[in-house]
# Entry
Amino acid sequence: MIWLIAFAMRAMMPRTAQLPGIADTDLNGFLRRMRQDAEPLYWVGLVAGAVLFALTPLLTLGIPLPAFCLPKKLLEKHANKLLSHPSYMLRQSVFLVRLSAGMCWGADPAVRARFALSPYAPDPGSFRTS
Amino acid sequence: MTHIAFQPAGPSVEVEADYVVVGSGAGGATAAVTLARGGARVVIVEAGPWRDPDDYPSSVYGAMRDMLESWGSTFTRGRAFWPLVQGSLVGGSTVINSAICVRTPGDVFERWQREMGVPQSSLADAVWGAQDELERELSSEEVPPAARGRSNLLAKRGADALGFDSHFMHRYVKGCRGDGQCLQGCKADKKQSLNRNFIPEVLTRGGSVLSCAPATRIVFEGQRAVAVTGRFKHPQTRQNGATFSVRARKGVVVAASVTHSPLLLQRSGVRNPMVGKGFRAHPGAPVFGCYDEAVDMNTGATQGWASMAYRDKPGFKLETLALPLDMLSGRLSGAGDLLMERLTEFRHIAMWVQACRAESVGEVRSTATGKPAVHYTLHREDMLRFREGMYLVAKMHVAAGARAVLPSIFGMPYKLAPDEIDQLKDASLDPRAYVSILSHLFGGCMMGQDPARSVCDGNGRVHGYANLLVADASAIPSNLGVNPQHTIMGLARVWSQRMLEAA
Ligand SMILES: Cc1cc2nc3c(=O)[nH]c(=O)nc-3n(C[C@H](O)[C@H](O)[C@H](O)COP(=O)(O)OP(=O)(O)OC[C@H]3O[C@@H](n4cnc5c(N)ncnc54)[C@H](O)[C@@H]3O)c2cc1C
Ligand code: SF4
# Structure
């Protein structure tokens, strides 16, 4: 399922002339970590959002194709329409994908450097054991 | 002194104490240290792990994984799905909060007397006295000039230009460096979260802490609470470990938060139908300002400026709040090139919020899996307040010199020019148009004199039980209109002192 989530995230945060895209970060590593760490409910929500993203161009653009088949411009249009869809349930279901994409992208050292932010120290994940 | 962390499956861990305190956040840690100072042997039972500043994460991902209850994935069930954010570690939400310290306003006690019959005279002075002590112990200080940062200074400028009162905040911090990382835990160890002071003090006074130890039941003999039981849970693997049982010779204090205290009482057989009722919150939502000069909102105190000018009428508090890039980039609307274009302005964005003093009431219930479900929707009067707060924040941005305002409301343009912000007056009143976050929560085990309308009395004692105390935000039967931790700590101190005296 990681590739499906990564696909949706890449569509949401592409590389531009001014900024690195999410594909320039360690997206797969991030998603692998997330699959392992996340609350099952969170991960299920993320997968459901990515599936919905892939299957809904018919609802957003009237095109009966999965999102993978769309050219870049239409894919971007699909992503924008889905995130601002009149149906609250629809736009809410991709909210976790968008939120998690931001977490990956905004923590990347090269991205942070663009905004004069120092790189994050690693998250140790440690705790007192005695 | 002992700290018992996760114990793998094996023989049950058995401990004995005078008092068992369930939950180690604002309420639990304060109650525990107060009881320990009174000479009692105290055991704290905390669902989350014990993390010190060296263990704190840097990123938002790390904070969600290591510090938040259920990855922040508890949402209101109602018209809109708004996330409820709470800490789950030793120190509770004090580790991830902004340390803002506001004394309980007098009208709050008046309201508790009027609506719930809680005698104001005996409580107000005692809580204020306790708050004097807490301010000294936890070093309440105004955000120092060097830590104010541009966003906080701009907010002050905006409020001054509009002519209403505002101030730099007082917070439980010793010498804030303005690292803007309060929400991920203060790695510089300046913030006085309770895992750094009260909880270690409980240990030095002979107490113990069980961490990674969610309590599942309180055990009763007749009407006396005599033990707390549960099973260790590993914070990373989520594997269950050994069971534990802590015998309480004198009493049990429940301080497991607004969402968990009611469920713990229900699971333990406390049959009062008011358990879970009376959920309230201060739903907050941001309005962003975009400035010509760089704001760099993550430089300076995470939250450094506030205004209470509109607390009474229409009923909201205004505050600054700096979101890290890895949170804000998931929060701005749009996708694709459009979003990336918007993100280029990150350094120029300041985020200020209104926290609505909402009167709507919800309920905490248990899901089939035993997790909390909060049923809550803002009614129309609250939405009017909410929207008015958003409009005022937009006006402040314009008064402070913003070149554009980003309202972040569904159905409105992404950006409004200064002369367009009146459009906010007609913004939707549907809660689904807003992305709000609930971090100030109240109720579920409300205090009051009448057992038919409340769970505990004006001393925090659960009706019908001699030695069972509630000492967290769940006992609070109204909104406060100010940041809650000082009130929670004040109540916890007073009530645990009274519990000691009664024993
Ligand atoms: C991001 C954020 C910022 C905030 N900023 C401020 C601020 O600046 N100023 C302010 O006044 N307030 C602030 N607040 C609110 C304030 O932190 C809370 O109101 C306060 O901490 C609540 O205290 P509590 O004791 O009720 O619960 P908590 O502090 O949340 O503690 C409850 C503890 O109980 C534990 N627990 C839960 N279930 C069990 C169980 N079954 N067994 C054992 N343990 C259990 C939890 O893991 C947790 O550690 C903020 C909150 C958040 C989330
Ligand atoms: S602003 Fe920085 S130094 Fe100050 S308390 Fe918060 S994290 Fe600590």
